[in-house]
Amino acid sequence: MDIAIYLHALTALFVIIDPIGAALIFNSLASNGDKRYRYIMATKAIIISGLTLILFGNYGETLFFHLGIDINSLRISGGLLLFFTAFQMITSDIGFSNKGELRDISVFPMTVPLLAGPGTLTLSVLLFSQDMDATGTVAVSAAIICTLLLTFVLMLVSKNLKKIIGKTGDEILKRFLGVILAALAIQFIYDGISNLMLK
Fold first, then answer.
1. Is 96 helix (H, G, I), strand (E, B) or coil?
2. pLDDT tens across 136-174, in order?
3. What residue stretch is flagged as signal peptide (predicted)?
4. pLDDT tens, position by position, 7-56
5. Helices and strands, counts by H and E, the chain
6. Residue 144 exposure: Cα atoms within 13 Å on the Cβ side
């Protein structure tokens, strides 16, 4: 395994995935769930995200080329999905459905657009598209797995934050993170539109 490629990929992935922020958002989304529910949601989100990033990184560019889809379209669509999630975090409790039942948050919004969103998918494509041998591919894959494993651990312990900051603090944090997510969503949309206009 190429250590230099691994460290480069690990740094870039850590910045864009933001394991700490993702864990805090996960806690807000699953705050009303029990330990088993949280474990299942975290496990599913990490496995699906890992497979998505590795497969998309290897084959995404080719797929988009054949479909005639610009990578910036992914940024815009991902930004819209992220904004929808942020809006719900700010205005309502999305831990439960209208029937009061726990819902599956592993695919949406945890995997897409949070962990394997447009920015992460684009980065994954760029990392795998570099001219490198099999050891480089293994290094990038290992970086993805390590970053997601760290995120997984932080997700499992994120509930302790609620005990420290209390119910009021948790509500404030949930709304605040929603605002941050909304800003990130607008940035994704802005970048996608800007890049398309420059072409």
1. strand
2. 899 999 999 999 999 999 999 988 866 776 667 767 777
3. none
4. 989 988 987 888 887 888 898 888 778 899 999 999 999 999 999 999 99
5. 7, 0
6. 28
> For the whole model, what pTM was predicted?
0.73
Contact 64, 130 (CB under 8 A): no
Domain spans of the chain? 3-198
Q: Which residues 6+ apart lie within 8 Å of 124 measured at CB?
A: 53, 54, 56, 57, 60, 140, 144
Q: Say which amino acid occupies 171.
A: E
Sequence-distant (≥ 6) Cβ neighbours of residue 49 within 8 angstroms: 110, 111, 115, 116, 148
Coil, strand or helix at 113: helix
Let me know if 133 is exposed, middle or buried by CB neighbors in 10 A (0-12, 13-18, 19+): exposed
177 Cβ neighbours under 8 A, 6+ residues apart: 21, 24, 25, 28, 89
For the chain, the first-to-last Cα distance in angstroms comes to 37
In sequence order, what E strands does 45-151 have? none
- Asked whether 171 and 89 are in contact (CB, 8 A), the reply is no
The answer to whether the CB of 189 falls within 8 A of the CB of 76 is yes
User: For residue 38, what are its two tokens?
Assistant: 């949280």
